[in-house]
Write a structure and sequence with these properties.
single chain, 182 residues, mainly alpha, Putative KfrA-like protein
Length: 182
């Protein structure tokens, strides 16, 4: 029996070693599983943090994009308004230039007419071109010469006072000199 007993003891020791090895392997696998669970939790936490950071970045970028879109729309609207204002100002400028050109033409015409009117009275004063009275005829009061009536009617249409037509009294309105400047 000793042999059988030795075999049994050897078998028992082998079984105990196998159990011990299994227990050790189980403990090691449990420790490894625990470590992997901790690592998994850390990776999940890190992934969640990264996802939150990405969501924050995305939200910030979307907010910036919306703000830039608003600024772009505002800038485009301002540009359209500026272009409209520029068109209106150009139209006003064109109208003002046309008025200025018309005023210059009218002023030139007025100067020309005044020059002609200055020459005409000077010629009459010397006895040259005016109507002569016959002896015994009344002096012309309301019955002016037809040329004189026409000049008076033109003056009335232009609104020029009679005093402005007299070059000797110094009240010529077409005189470009201004005494206050000297």
């Amino acid at each position: 029996m000793t042999l059988a007993q030795e075999r049994a003891e050897a078998s028992e020791r082998r079984s105990l070693r196998e159990l011990d090895a299994e227990r050790t392997a189980r403990q090691q696998s449990e420790r490894a599983a625990e470590a992997l669970r901790g690592e998994l939790a850390a990776v999940r936490s890190e992934a969640r943090d990264v996802a939150v950071a990405q969501a924050e970045i995305r939200a910030r970028l979307e907010a910036q994009a919306a703000a830039l879109a608003d600024r772009l729309a505002t800038a485009e609207q301002a540009q359209r308004k500026a272009a409209h204002d520029l068109d209106a100002l150009q139209a006003e400028l064109g109208a003002a230039q046309r008025r200025a050109e018309r005023a210059e033409a009218e002023a030139a015409l007025a100067r020309q007419l005044l020059a002609e009117l200055r020459v005409a009275p000077a010629g009459r004063g010397e006895g040259g071109g005016g109507r002569r009275r016959k002896a015994g005829d009344p002096a012309p009061t309301e019955q002016a010469a037809p040329g004189e009536k026409q000049n008076e009617q033109q003056d009335d249409k232009q609104g020029a006072p009679a005093a402005a037509l007299n070059p000797e009294d110094g009240s010529d309105s077409s005189d470009d000199s201004n005494d206050s400047k000297n």
